[in-house]
Write a structure and sequence with these properties.
single chain; alpha+beta
Amino acid sequence: MAWLKFIIETLENIEVSDEEIFELLSQVYVQGGFTTAKVAGVVFNPALVKKRGVLFAARETATKEFSGMVIVVPPTSNAIVRAKENECEMHLLAVKPKFRGYGLGRGLVAKAIEYSSHNNWSKIVLWTQKPMKEAQKLYESFGFLHTDEMNKNGIEFLVYEK
């Protein structure tokens, strides 16, 4: 397996089209069997996705292909679901399947944690679907603890906090 490198930056520092965002989220969540195309058409609207918070985007350095993303949702965002005052949330961690296994998911989560720490937020809250075992292992490796469960739009989620 060849080694790949990625650049991870905010949308202020890296260009990503709305089509690329929608394509990535659809590939990961719809083709991955975690949501329907109908739900994705609403939930993954790029304009709304970008309004949630700070989007960290990744491009593979050799090909410049959009490879992954994660959003850090600040306490002031209307997109907050579970976080309380001075807490942020992490939304929509997504890595294209062909780029998995190269540390990109780890890099994106590390950027989210670093950004949260830089802003002195007391906690990061996230939720993940029960079948997303690899994501859960990744979060736990960073010290996230499974603290609760929730049902959102008929889907069962595990809530994690760090």
